[in-house]
Write a structure and sequence with these properties.
6-stranded antiparallel beta sheet; alpha+beta; about 45% strand; about 25% helix; 12 strands; globular; 4-stranded antiparallel beta sheet
Length: about 290
């Protein structure tokens, strides 16, 4: 009997130790040091107009897919879709012990609009007690012209004079809306914009291949990975207010990313659908 008790106690200790070492996989994004030899063999985000309208609305096929060059303990992709400067939908998928993720969604819309999608592809890798990660971003954009005076069309790059005029109109409308919103947010929170590098979330894609000013690529990827970790927890899943309550991000303005020029912290500014101004703060480790 004593021997059985001793074996049971030993098994309990081993089980407890295993739970301590191996974090159960769950739907989350956590930044770990980038694995230097693990890469995404394929990653893409696409927006495609569907040919038929129904009840006065057209449809977009929105997809995000990625494949790591090996199995990962946890794979996760998230994607955000904006139209004319506001979030209209989101995608997320995760899988354990896998290389590849694919997801797609049909999104209904009406009127001429400028769509932007950005995705974050993430893999968490376990090698013994060492945990690392791999990450990349992809994006796509699409102009859709829905006018009673012409056929329904879409394009990535304007080819005709009519498309160029529509592109200019939609770009200007979106830019003016975001500029007005950003000025209001900066004023509300008394933020001195000249102390920050600023960009809107879809523009973050440029730092897939180049570093932030005066930083290494390694440090840039760390900042981006931790930014997406924070965005997932405090924006994608629901906007966390200071009082702890949660608001839906749908309808909120495209997040303005402010990275302090001394790289001590970054801010994410957005305005909810109901007009509430939100500031998320993240410290940057030196």
């Amino acid at each position: 009997m004593k021997k059985l008790v001793s074996i049971a106690a030993l098994l309990l200790i081993i089980a407890s130790f295993s739970l301590f070492i191996y974090r159960p996989a769950k739907e989350t994004i956590i930044f770990f040091p980038i694995h230097p030899h693990v890469t995404f063999s394929e990653a893409k985000t696409t927006l495609q107009l569907q040919p038929q309208k129904r009840d006065g609305k057209y449809s977009l096929l929105w997809s995000a897919a990625s494949s790591l060059d090996r199995d990962a303990y946890l794979r996760q992709d998230i994607s955000l879709l904006f139209a004319d400067g506001r979030l209209i939908d989101r995608l997320a998928k995760w899988k354990t012990n896998s290389q590849t993720l694919t997801q797609e969604k049909i999104v209904a819309a009406r009127d001429s609009r400028f769509f932007q999608a950005i995705s974050f592809h993430h893999g968490e890798l376990h090698e013994g007690e060492m945990i690392t990660s791999s990450q990349t971003m992809t994006s796509d954009y699409l102009y859709v012209i829905d006018s009673p005076y012409s056929p329904l069309v879409s394009f990535h790059r304007a080819a005709t004079q009519d498309e160029k005029e529509w592109q200019n109109v939609l770009n200007k409308t979106t830019a003016e809306f975001l500029q007005h919103t950003s000025e209001s947010l900066l004023s509300h929170f008394s933020i001195q914009k000249q102390q920050y590098y600023s960009l809107y979330l879809p523009d973050l894609i440029v730092y897939n291949e180049q570093p932030l000013p005066d930083l290494s690529m390694e440090k840039t990827q760390e900042i981006i990975g931790k930014l997406w970790e924070g965005l997932y927890k405090s924006y994608f899943l629901g906007i966390k207010k200071e009082d702890g309550s949660i608001l839906s991000p749908i309808g909120s303005t495209t997040p303005l990313i402010l990275i302090s020029k001394d790289y001590s912290h970054l801010l994410v500014l957005t305005e909810t659908k109901d007009g509430e101004k939100i500031r998320l703060t993240q410290q940057i480790s030196r």
